[in-house]
């Protein structure tokens, strides 16, 4: 038997790889057993689109919505573009987590001392557009003591679904995804011009939520908020230790089709389901 030297082994391996690649190309099937995309359908145009525009196209659809005052608006151009925003999903007939999250945000609104509606904008989007009319949303806001500068929104069911999934509120399991309560526990915090997007738990202490919003809104511009410095794109916020030793004090929501979320967690006060970051409470 001929001795197999390292050089001969590398040559043999290269020949095998080339043969597999040639077979793959000839059969129009990739090495991962997926049908190759026909060349006629390739539509690469990366150099002509900015990262900000790419984020808008993938995650901030410009769907038409209706406010609690029955005014038509477009999600991206009217509500999000060039703004600092806080976004949550809810529905007026929710008896579980929605009232809790709304109450927390009402407290946060007071802590921000007039900034909501001025340079930070709150948006609550219904998960039940078939049921929640602008009148229902206005009544919900009044019931919970919502202050000025906070907009409640409804729209066409398909548009709301697109918006929800584009913002990262979805479960892979269709049954879990269909449960509206699974999508109302997390809050999106963003500074659109700077392409900074994060999530925090709506069930956390309102002081914590306010800190997250102020940090995301102000740290990129001033360098620090209450001593927390902005040294790199991933902000390291000091947190309290978790009550449950098996639960990490902070978690990363993860990447959703190239949409990188930074997550803020106050796990010492609330325990959330981490299976896909949609924020459904669980017993702990």
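Q: What amino acid sequence fits the structure above?
A:
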């Amino acid at each position: 038997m001929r001795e197999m030297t390292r050089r001969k082994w590398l040559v043999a391996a290269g020949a095998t790889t080339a043969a597999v690649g040639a077979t793959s190309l000839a059969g129009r099937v990739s090495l991962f057993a997926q049908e190759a995309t026909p060349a006629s359908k390739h539509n690469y145009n990366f150099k002509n689109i900015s990262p900000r525009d790419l984020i808008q196209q993938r995650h901030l659809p410009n769907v038409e919505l209706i406010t609690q005052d029955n005014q038509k608006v477009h999600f991206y151009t009217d509500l999000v573009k060039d703004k600092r925003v806080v976004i949550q999903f809810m529905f007026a007939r929710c008896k579980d987590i929605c009232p809790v999250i709304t109450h927390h945000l009402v407290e946060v609104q007071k802590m921000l001392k007039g900034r909501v509606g001025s340079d930070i904008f709150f948006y609550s989007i219904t998960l039940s557009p078939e049921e929640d009319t602008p009148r229902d949303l206005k009544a919900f806001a009044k019931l919970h003591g919502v202050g000025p500068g906070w907009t409640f929104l409804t729209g066409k069911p398909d548009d709301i679904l697109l918006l929800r999934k584009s913002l990262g509120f979805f479960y892979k399991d269709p049954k879990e995804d269909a449960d509206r309560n699974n999508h109302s526990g997390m809050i999106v915090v963003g500074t659109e011009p700077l392409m900074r997007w994060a999530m925090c738990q709506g069930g956390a202490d309102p002081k914590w939520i306010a800190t997250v919003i102020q940090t995301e809104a102000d740290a990129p511009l001033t360098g620090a908020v209450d001593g927390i410095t902005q040294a790199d794109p991933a902000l390291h916020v000091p947190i309290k230790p978790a009550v449950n030793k098996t639960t990490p004090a902070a978690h990363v929501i993860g990447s959703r089709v190239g949409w990188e979320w930074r997550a803020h967690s106050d796990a010492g006060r609330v325990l959330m389901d981490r299976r896909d970051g949609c924020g459904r409470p669980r017993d702990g």
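Q: And what stands out in the fold?
A: The two ends are 64 Å apart (CA to CA).
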